[in-house]
Amino acid sequence: MRITRCAQLTAGLAATLAIFTATLQSTAAPTDPVAVTAQPVAGSSNVKVEGSRIILGDAPAAIGSSEIKQRSGLAELTPVRFDAATSAVVVGYTSGTPDGSSAEVDVRAWVKDKWTEWTPAKSGTPTALPGASDQVQLRIVVSAPPAGGSPWVGDVTVQPTDKVDPSRMSIQAAPLKSRVFATREGLVGGTTANGHVIVNRDHFVALPSRRGLSANGSGTYSVKVCTASRCAFEPVWDVGPWNTKDDYWNPSATREMWKDLPQGKPEAQAAYQDGYNGGKDQFGRTVANPAGIDLADGTFWDGLALTNNAWVDVTYLWTGDGGRGTVSISSGYLNVRNAASSSGAIVGMAGKSAQVTVECQTTGQSVTGSQGTSNIWLRVHPGMYVAKAWVSAGTFGAC
What we know:
By secondary structure, the chain is mainly beta. It has helices at 267-274, 297-303, and strands at residues 34-35, 47-50, 53-56, 71-76, 80-96, 102-111, 114-115, 119-120, 126-144, 152-160, 177-184, 205-207, 222-226, 231-239, 291-295, 310-316, 324-327, 333-337, 346-351, 355-357, 360-369, 372-381, 384-387, 391-392.
């Protein structure tokens, strides 16, 4: 463990999520704001609805990868479809943030048959999308100190606009890969930033920004983490270590904080190695190691066979194109093997709902899984294969 953490964490998903359906009137002009009523969709956590407001739920404070004890809730809303593609939107909303709490509304777009990452949307200000799209989705994130009032967001509207600085629009040509220091998260029994309750030898990772945070049970934002001999494919289900607004995989133009750092270099690494920001994180804490990713125990011990914190190669899969498949299992992990056979040596693992890269496909041992019976195996990394019977994926070229 990189720092002793409090293990007294409890999970909480709000028992009730009121009617809140996101719609866009087809008769509305492109410049007209449209009222958005919303229903938090599957994967939302610890929120409740009172009238037109989404409010932080009643779950107690928890300490996740960032080691900041707080109450938090997350609500992904039903996607909104426009009559025509737009390159930017204006999101409007009201909010209440009592007792040092916070409330944020994020937006993402459906581009090239996948969701872009989340971008904070300031009320009334145009927010550029990474690409033109006729479909967007909003997310509400509310957080507060362990005691005190509960933040809320209400009166949500959204509208397409062409009034935005085009210099802020960018799409990376290929997924970013960087070498970062990995630490073990632990915290079994605790709750992650997306509401997932951590189990023994769990499979997920934490990154220090909510921009790449998947909803509970989703692998929309997944990473490939590799050592010299093993790889793990895992969903991003927590925020940390150290920072919470350090999307270091993004270029300076779109990075939320620390814009003067090189793309791919975590702020914690710069603080620890170079004394950047006075050697402190965004909360003013002295950075004790250069960690840029936290690994759940199963990822750390089993997927990568690590015995101590280590430097690893991380590929942020949502930041680029390429063949993909989604691990379709109800719990646990899928073995990654060195041959197209269940007798091949295990050289890695892929967690529930994680996306995996697919280089090509080959025939091998017949396997029966969630996708039926198949003798097709997918090569997910040089010399590494998974059975397609357990992966929701299309057809790929032969290896």
